[in-house]
Write a structure and sequence with these properties.
Blueprint (H helix, E strand, L loop, with lengths): L1 E8 L13 H11 L3 E7 L5 H11 L2 E9 L5 E5 L3 H13 L8 H4 L3 E3 L5 E4 L12 H10 L3 E4 L9 H5 L11 E3 L5 H7 L8 E3 L14 E4 L5 H8 L11 E2 L8
Helix pairs in contact: 1-2
The protein binds zinc ion (2 copies).
């Protein structure tokens, strides 16, 4: 089935995310815009994943629990999980492999954990913007061990991307998908980084504000709308060409 997706969205738990990115605002905006499959991916944390999933169920939207991890290479990697429990298990690993820094909300922004009714549960004290000590390879290995999938975020950007940090996508852990920014030029990216050829390029918004959530622009074909089907695709389990995401206006793949 063809699903309009956005697999990189920040909630109010991210210090740089708007306080208005509450679980209900996020899923209702996504549903209103016409998305069928989204992921909540806060920086180095999964504390709002359960609430966003619950709100998503009420809005008729499939939500995948996730995290945008800042790796030891200072690169962002989107990590997605089949369940909230698996996401929380990964978060515990990240906490153990991160510097013990506290957030300074007056400088970096508040880190709000809410419940499915958008009520404040707690403010996360950990500094979520710090780089963890996990390399991209180690992180992806651990994500897969928990039944999840990982892909390098916004590889076309000059900062916090694996290509910016290392000059190329490393051969290990064998990423089977990568993310390009909506404003990026996939063809130029592929010319400069042939190691990406053959990988599905995902186009996600990386929205931190409700007003930055765009109209659906790319779709993905999955056997069903579920975190498991998405993770199987991202891990390369579904390799037929028609499973590659494409642009909605012409239905063509970028590849
Ligand atoms: Zn990022
Ligand atoms: Zn992001």
């Amino acid at each position: 089935m063809r699903l309009f997706y956005d697999l990189h969205l920040h909630s109010c738990l991210s210090p740089c995310g708007s306080d208005d990115m509450t679980p209900n605002n996020l899923v209702n905006m996504a549903a209103l815009l016409g998305f069928q499959l989204i992921a909540v991916t806060d920086h180095n944390a999964c504390g709002n994943a359960g609430a966003v999933l619950e709100a998503g169920r009420a809005a008729g939207l499939v939500v995948v629990p996730g995290m945008e991890l800042c790796t030891a290479e200072e690169a962002h990697v989107v990590c997605l999980f089949p369940t909230v429990a698996a996401a929380e298990e990964f978060e515990a690993i990240v906490v153990r492999h991160s510097p013990p820094l506290k957030n300074r909300p007056e400088i970096f922004g508040r880190q709000l954990r809410l419940n499915a009714a958008d009520e404040l549960v707690a403010e996360e004290e950990r500094m979520l913007l710090a780089s963890s000590f996990l390399t991209a390879e180690e992180a992806a290995r651990r994500v897969r061990a928990l039944g999840g999938a990982a892909f390098p975020a916004h590889v076309d950007r000059d900062s916090y991307s694996l290509i910016a940090s290392l000059g190329a996508i490393p051969p290990e852990p064998g990423f089977r998908a990568a993310e390009v920014s909506p404003s990026g030029d996939p063809r130029a990216l592929l010319r400069a980084n042939p190691e990406l050829c053959g990988l599905p390029l995902l186009m996600n918004s990386d929205a931190h504000y409700l007003e930055n959530m765009p109209d659906p622009a790319a779709w993905i074909d999955l056997p069903e709308a579920s975190p498991e089907a998405l993770i199987a695709f991202l891990n390369g389990g579904l390799t037929a060409p028609w499973y590659r995401p494409g642009r909605s206006e012409d239905g063509l793949s970028w590849l």
